[in-house]
Design brief:
The complex is a heterodimer of chains A (113) and B (106). Chain A is 0% helix and 49% strand. With 113 residues, chain A is an all-beta fold. In chain A, strand 5 and strand 6 form a beta hairpin. Chain B starts with a strand and ends with a strand. In chain B, strands 2, 4, 5, 9, 10 and 11 form a six-stranded mixed sheet that branches. Chain B has a five-stranded antiparallel sheet with strand order 1-3-8-7-6, with no helix packed on it. By secondary structure, chain B is an all-beta fold. In chain B, strand 6 and strand 7 form a beta hairpin. Classes of the chains: A mainly beta (113), B mainly beta (106).
Chain lengths: 113, 106
């Protein structure tokens, strides 16, 4: 079955540590996205990528980095520069074709130790 | 003011009731999405629409482009419909509403 896989489901970060969240899709989608969800707020875009080896900053990119070396994979690194990393992170993909729905992973809850 | 506003923020219903969730937006869009987020956090896309009305099972989504408004209806609601329903508009980038938390009691 096609879909998006995020891992891990729960992640803990120590002070000054970088952590990487995994996102893999086998839907052959060109576009992939990372969102952050905080209680009581709408999803906010961190980074997105429309094609391999290219990505763009979203609304809240500071303290995060991404790579898109393969079409299937779009990992997100939460760096030590992100001072408030505790949140629920969601990866999504789409084909960007007309009428295509978004597909989301199951999310990663990141907490600070 | 948020570019995407949903109402109500919270909604409780008895099993079998007809549910309506509203979404208003203030930007030009190419499409609008209705999403469902269950307590575990995963999000499922329910509808993507750019005009008119779509139906899937007990769910109906409508959009009025001129009025910049969309509604999601659930007929014969069931406790398994309990979730957060999120409206998102495609305006060069996706802009999300804050969601409507629905609880359906038996």
């Amino acid at each position: 079955d096609g879909g998006i896989t995020q891992s891990p489901k729960y992640l803990f970060r120590k002070e000054g540590q970088n952590v990487t969240l995994s996102c893999e899709q086998n839907l052959n989608h060109d576009a992939m996205y990372w969102y952050r969800q905080d209680p009581g707020q709408g999803l906010r875009l961190i980074y997105y990528s429309q094609i391999v080896n290219d990505f763009q900053k979203g609304d809240i990119a500071e303290g995060y980095s991404v790579s898109r070396e393969k079409k299937e994979s779009f990992p997100l690194t939460v760096t030590s520069a992100q001072k408030n990393p505790t949140a629920f992170y969601l990866c999504a993909s789409s084909s960007r074709a007309a009428g295509e729905k978004l597909f989301f992973g199951s999310g990663t809850q990141l907490s600070v130790l | 003011k948020n570019e995407v506003e949903q109402s109500p923020q919270n909604l409780t219903a008895q099993e079998g009731e007809f549910i309506t969730i509203n979404c208003s937006y203030s930007v030009g869009i190419s499409a609008l999405h209705w999403l469902q987020q269950h307590p575990g956090g995963g999000i499922v896309s329910l509808f993507m629409l750019s005009s008119g009305k779509k139906k899937h099972g007990r769910l109906i989504a409508t959009i009025n482009i001129q009025e910049k408004h969309s509604s999601l209806h659930i007929t014969a609601s069931h406790p398994r419909d309990s979730a957060v329903y999120i409206c998102a508009v495609d305006a060069d980038k996706l802009i999300f509403g804050t969601g409507t938390r629905l609880q359906v009691f038996p």
